[in-house]
């Protein structure tokens, strides 16, 4: 240790700052590694940049089941989704396996969580707003059952936060539906009589 102190004493001020930075990076390497590992996108130019990180690993407390609660069944999902007027029961039944799997993956595992999700106006209205704005869906029938399971489950588990909504928007902009709707409006076909 004394050799290290002697080396530090022999360095001039202009060398001390970079050494201090290296030492700080070494000490914080795990935290910095975790942060860099969660980085999904960097955008910007000049001195202004924005960073988009992966979803936080900390779930909302209401998303965690309590001991002894029964796990939902497919019939529970069909029953609970009747509360959402945007789609029919037949649509839910047609995609029940994927819907059920997405709910479980997003931490919606108990009846209470399921009914809290389908009755959450902030969650459903956030998805509706994003689907109208990004996917140009009609306002009266905006949602589909899979959207509620995937994005609603994510918002339920992690909270209705700006970074979560931004991550959803980013994913939707990579969807086939987005590309079809936005490419067709950006490059309308020329009328057949024009030259």
In short:
The protein has 195 residues and is mainly α. The protein is built from eleven helices and two strands, in the order H-H-H-E-E-H-H-H-H-H-H-H-H.
Q: What this model shows, in words?
A:
- This protein has 195 residues and is mainly α.
- The protein folds into two domains: 2-38; 61-185, no CATH class.
- It contains eleven helices and two strands.
- It has helices at residues 2-10, 13-27, 29-38, 74-81, 89-94, 96-105, 111-118, 121-135, 145-158, 162-173, 176-186, and strands at 39-45, 48-53.
- Strands 1-2 form a two-stranded antiparallel sheet.
- Strand 1 (39-45) and strand 2 (48-53) form a beta hairpin.
- 19% of the residues are buried.
- The model has no long low-confidence stretch (mean pLDDT 81).
On the 0-100 scale, what is the average pLDDT? 81
Subunit organisation of the chains? single chain
User: What is the element string, with H for helices and E for strands?
Assistant: HHHEEHHHHHHHH
Report, as a whole number of angstroms, the end-to-end distance: 82 Å
Helix content: 55-70%
Radius of gyration: 25 Å
Which outline best applies? elongated
The number of strands is 2
Runs in which pLDDT lies below 50 for 5 or more consecutive residues are none
Number of domains: 2
Question: What structural category characterises the helix and strand content?
Answer: mainly alpha
| Beta-strand content | 5-15%
The main sheet comes to: 2 strands, antiparallel
Give me the number of helical elements. 11
Provide the spatial order of strands within the biggest beta sheet: 1-2
């Amino acid at each position: 240790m004394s050799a290290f102190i002697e080396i530090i004493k022999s360095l001039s001020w202009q060398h001390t700052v970079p050494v201090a930075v290296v030492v700080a990076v070494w000490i914080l390497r795990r935290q910095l590694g975790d942060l860099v590992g969660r980085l999904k996108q960097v955008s910007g130019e000049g001195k202004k940049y924005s960073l988009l990180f992966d979803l936080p690993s900390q779930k909302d407390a209401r998303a965690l089941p309590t001991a002894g609660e029964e796990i939902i069944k497919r019939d529970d999902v069909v029953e609970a989704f009747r509360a959402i007027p945007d789609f029919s029961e037949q649509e839910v039944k047609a995609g029940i396996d994927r819907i059920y799997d997405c709910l479980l993956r997003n931490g919606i595992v108990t009846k209470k969580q399921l009914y809290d999700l389908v009755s959450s106006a902030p969650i459903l209205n956030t998805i509706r707003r994003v689907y109208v704005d990004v996917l140009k869906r009609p306002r009266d029938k905006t949602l589909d059952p899979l959207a509620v399971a995937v994005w609603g489950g994510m918002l339920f588990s992690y909270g209705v936060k700006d970074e979560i909504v931004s991550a959803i928007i980013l994913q939707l902009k990579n969807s086939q539906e987005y590309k079809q709707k936005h490419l067709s409006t950006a490059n309308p076909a020329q009328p057949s009589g024009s030259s």
